[in-house]
């Protein structure tokens, strides 16, 4: 397929991938001039009782500290990470960073730890409040060097130029998108994935799958992002069941390759209406991405279908491993198969499983907010708040 | 295919791609703090009468200067680039850079201009002579920011961590390979490709094809590089004929996407025996890569076949657009089709067309030198100097 295009940009961090690759963390920090690393992780102190990853308990934070120590690098530890990271903790973290005269920012954890670290990097170098930077390209000054070690295979924050922070007062997840948010180095060590729960394996893979699908049909998808999207979809369909059932390191490794591919794609191609709505719902009800996607994704794909039938057919072909008679048939069969795939795991498939009946009144303001989310800009079909509301009703 | 692997690294520059994207050159330099750009290009002064690209004549250097001027950026122009760039010109350029207190290094041109710029960057920041850095990972100190604008679609120097400089005294092309040689930004503007000659279009595409094939079978190929290699092979086979015949911008654009994909692959996966020998031959006889590859590539593929039959079959499948009965059949048919592909263009297919009979005596020392080329380290099958010599005799 020949794609004619305007100027497109493709930026990713340096990636260090492999079993045991966490051992390079100290050298990576040194390469960026580290004297005192600002180390961000979750689950140190149980803020808000959220501690999904258990990264500290599994010993990875200590392992990382030992690695830094061996390289003669000092560090300061900031463990105040929550899922759906809060604006005020980011601002508090930045103060802590500045007060301690730290340099390289290192995060070990999932999307929440890494997004917290990114938020801290923004405030520490640009000042102000995190909400000042909501939207695309609003961060002006360069950020401190960032070296990230992902412990999930889904959020893609270790690869992407995205940072999602919850504005607590407005109860909304803000999308902050700018090229300088691409970390300097992403270390992906599949050995760390072995300590993940079944639930987290599924949620991370579902997150990567949503990234892959939305980026593939994005208005600004490019020849650099589209093959990455399809590769991620393929790897997730072929490996998630085995990863959940057997925890085999091979299949976990393939899922983390899928997540990297999906992240390269969405970071540079953007996302769509499904993520816009997921951010808005997540901000209001504190539901994580991995939980929302199986509920919304197929419905948003059907909504978009008329605007990108050929690309939805490409997705269908990868999911089904064959093409049917027409693009429309292939696309629709792919979406149906996707729903069956989600149903085969123990996840919520209706919005009413995650949101109380009494809270249904909030759906309208949520949908109005989703329209303005930066992700909605790249959706292949314009989506109004009424469209969002009818999607919510369809999946209720 | 599941690939078990040791730690693998993947580093590429930020890529800005698209028709007219040269207009971002000034902003890119500013983002890296440019006050006085060191601008490297070929064909300004006809050193050694080599002036393949005619980039200056086509007005691109002036266009770039206008862009810098519009952004209020000063520059100093260094036009002393030759094909197969010479060590002493790199060292002279570094002196010129330091004397003029330049900052961002910008190259506009093909592989020679960009490799000259990289060599200057090394010496300007690390001192010494360029031969001190021959081999892998010998450059210690960080380099000045580099923003490159490629005018060919082949060398990949705008994407890669490779720099090839000719040691004039030893008459050898030195491979200098280190992560810091990945430029900060690569601007790829397909409009520039329209000014290329037919010969240069073919040579560049052949260079990219050799990168793609050797990186795919490399010992350190990874899941991040292998899909890029295959994509490049596919795009070159489907677009080179049309690009040569019609000069259509669409097909030239596809070739430059192929070159980027191939470069992402070889920069991170390395190359093999064919490039080792091409460097050694090129250093002795001043033959460019694009001329040597059609002569050597198929012979080296047959030499390697027993060590990587499955991967050669993947290459064959892409070339033929189908699989035959066995991996071996697919691989061999792919190599034969590759030879036919080369033959369909007006290029030399035998070494005797490029090297005088009287110079045959130099083949033994050339082959002895090829064994020590850094590219030979990642070849799937160990190659001795006798192996190289028998390849040279086979293609004589």
What are the salient characteristics of this protein?
homodimer; 396 residues; alpha/beta; Rossmann fold; Dehydroquinate synthase-like, alpha domain; six-stranded parallel sheet; three-stranded mixed sheet; 14 helices; 48% helix
Structural write-up:
Two copies of one chain form a homodimer. By secondary structure, the first copy, chain A, is α/β, with parallel strands linked by helices. Chain A folds into two domains: 14-193, Rossmann fold (3-Layer(aba) Sandwich); 198-395, Dehydroquinate synthase-like - alpha domain (Dehydroquinate synthase-like, alpha domain, Up-down Bundle). Chain A is built from 14 helices and ten strands. Chain A has a six-stranded parallel sheet, with helices on both faces. In chain A, helix 7 (226-246) packs antiparallel against helix 8 (249-269) and helix 13 packs across helix 14. Residues 44-52 of chain A have low confidence and may be disordered. At the A-B interface, strand 1, strand 2 and helix 8 of A face strand 1, strand 2 and helix 8 of B.
Topology:
2 copies of one chain form a homodimer.
Chain A: E1 8-10, E2 14-17, H1 25-31, E3 36-41, H2 60-70, E4 74-78, H3 87-99, E5 105-109, H4 111-126, E6 135-136, E7 146-150, E8 162-167, E9 172-177, E10 185-188, H5 190-193, H6 198-216, H7 226-246, H8 249-269, H9 273-285, H10 289-304, H11 309-320, H12 327-343, H13 363-371, H14 385-395
Parallel strand pairs in A: 2-10, 3-4, 3-5, 5-7, 6-9, 7-10
Antiparallel strand pairs in A: 8-9
